[in-house]
Amino acid sequence: MVAAPRRAATLGLVLVAFAIVWAGCSGESEPAGPTATPSSPVEGELAVRAFEWGFEPERIILQSGEEVRLEFQNSGEIIHNLRVIDLEVDLIEDMSGGGFSPDDDELLVGAESEESGSITFIPLEPGEYEFFCSIGNHRQLGMRGRLVVE
Ligand SMILES: [Cu+2]
After folding, report:
1. What is the pLDDT of residues 6-31, one digit of tens each?
2. In the chain, at which end, N or C, are there fewer CB atoms within 10 A of the end residue's CB?
3. CA of 30 to the centre of ligand 1 (A)
4. Domain 45-149, what fold?
């Protein structure tokens, strides 16, 4: 039997080739869509869309000391919110939907399905924070993102 080892060798080569192709692909699998690019406010306004299960954009960059109006758009089928803890903010105006009401120094805005809410605030402390939906296990299901305050 000569064919069997040769076949095994060929199979081995094919597997190695697949592994190389696989490694090459996974190295470039960084999402190229709009979610990969951080969003910053335009003229003090920034819209964030919530859905099951995530946010768009997933990365937000704000400037400390600069007032921003964050418009929270819920395009999902159930109630959602956006919450950041440990970020010091100056709360200017709370126009949240869904019955959410932030504490003085907290960032919390939400809305019922197919509705919007907004919160106007000034981020005070530079740093990196996580924003997330604080309802049920939505955070674990993927409703979270990065907030950078420069
Ligand atoms: Cu949610």
Report:
1. 555 544 444 444 444 444 444 444 44
2. N
3. 25
4. Immunoglobulin-like (2.60.40)
